[in-house]
Write a structure and sequence with these properties.
mainly alpha; elongated
Length: 168
């Protein structure tokens, strides 16, 4: 088996693993909520669970503040699946692969920033909320900011390589 076939096979296995983890996570979350009344899936810290238990009358507002995170997770899974599908077909440098990488990079950046500022939203919606725990992680922001730049550099390098090959 040559190296490209190994990469295609690894991409296919990774794609199936992502599906498996998604199904397992949803099953655990649903089971935990139906049996214990608590989401067993966390969105980064215990702050949501604490607020969920403290303010049962405002659970809809809490869900709305988490909607961008949930949408970002599912959009990220969608684009990761598309990228792994392209890679499993052997289309490592295709335009579709680059589009998927760009979406994943920008979604990662949005997710990190939103997770940091998320606690401010419940404090605005819940009237008697006393403490807000906002944690800014500068190293995480810098690392995630590099992702769109790296994807852009790889895309530009691919275009330069194509131009060089056309000239030769």
């Amino acid at each position: 088996m040559d190296s490209i076939e190994k990469l295609k096979r690894a991409s296919h296995i990774a794609r199936m693993l992502v599906f498996g983890v998604l199904i397992f996570t949803l099953a655990v979350a649903f089971y935990g909520y139906t049996t214990e009344g608590v989401w067993w899936v966390s969105f980064g810290d215990e702050q949501l669970n604490r607020l969920w238990q403290q303010y049962p009358q405002d659970q809809l507002a809490l869900m709305l503040t988490l909607a961008p995170s949930v949408i970002t997770i599912f959009a990220g899974i969608f684009w990761l699946q598309r990228l792994l599908l392209e890679l499993s077909r052997g289309l490592f440098y295709s335009i579709k692969s680059m589009i998927c990488l760009k979406w994943l990079a920008w979604l990662s950046l949005f997710a990190v920033i939103y997770q940091m500022i998320w606690p401010l939203l419940p404090s605005m919606l819940l009237n008697d909320l006393q403490s807000v725990d906002v944690r800014i992680r500068p190293l995480t922001i810098m690392a995630v900011l590099c992702l769109p730049v790296l994807v852009h550099l790889f895309s530009a390098a691919k275009e330069l390589d194509q131009e060089n090959n056309e000239i030769v």
